[in-house]
């Protein structure tokens, strides 16, 4: 499945992005698992300045406390770290384990979304 997906992306970087929005109209799209720069670029080209990018980050320590264990060949693959150096996110949500901080950050994002609708 991974090989098939990579073949599709190599032939047409927007293949999966177009499939998501095909035949559907929404006032706002929340695409929760964009993993590659080409995905973000597709949405930016298709929807222009209304596109907002959100990056959720967590320290390695907080991820390990949740049971995450680094797996070579998986956690260092493009599908997992292809956006690590993108750097142009509109929003960065820090999820290090402080629930109130997370709630505050998400509320700010929700306020922005509500104001945009």
From TrEMBL:
Highest taxon above the source species: Eukaryota
GO biological process, one term: cholesterol biosynthetic process
GO terms assigned for molecular function: ATP binding; phosphomevalonate kinase activity
UniProt EC number: 2.7.4.2
One Gene Ontology cellular component: cytosol
Keywords: ATP-binding, Cholesterol biosynthesis, Cholesterol metabolism, Cytoplasm, Kinase, Lipid biosynthesis, Lipid metabolism, Nucleotide-binding, Steroid biosynthesis, Steroid metabolism, Sterol biosynthesis, Sterol metabolism, Transferase
Entries under InterPro entries matching the protein: P-loop_NTPase (IPR027417), Pmev_kin_anim (IPR005919)
UniProt subcellular location: Cytoplasm, Cytosol
Pfam family, one: P-mevalo_kinase
Pathway: Isoprenoid biosynthesis; isopentenyl diphosphate biosynthesis via mevalonate pathway; isopentenyl diphosphate from (R)-mevalonate: step 2/3
Full protein name: Phosphomevalonate kinase
Source organism per UniProt: Cricetulus griseus (Chinese hamster)
């Amino acid at each position: 499945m991974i090989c098939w997906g990579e073949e599709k992306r190599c032939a047409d970087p927007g293949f999966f992005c177009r499939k998501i929005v095909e035949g559907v109209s929404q006032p706002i799209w929340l695409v929760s698992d964009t993993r590659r720069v080409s995905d973000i670029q597709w949405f930016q080209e298709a929807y222009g300045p209304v596109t907002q990018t959100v990056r959720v980050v967590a320290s390695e320590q907080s991820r390990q406390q949740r049971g995450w264990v680094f797996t070579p060949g998986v956690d260092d693959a493009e599908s997992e770290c292809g956006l690590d150096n993108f750097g142009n996110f509109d929003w960065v949500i820090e999820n290090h384990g402080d629930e109130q901080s997370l709630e505050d950050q998400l509320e700010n994002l929700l306020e922005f979304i509500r104001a945009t609708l």
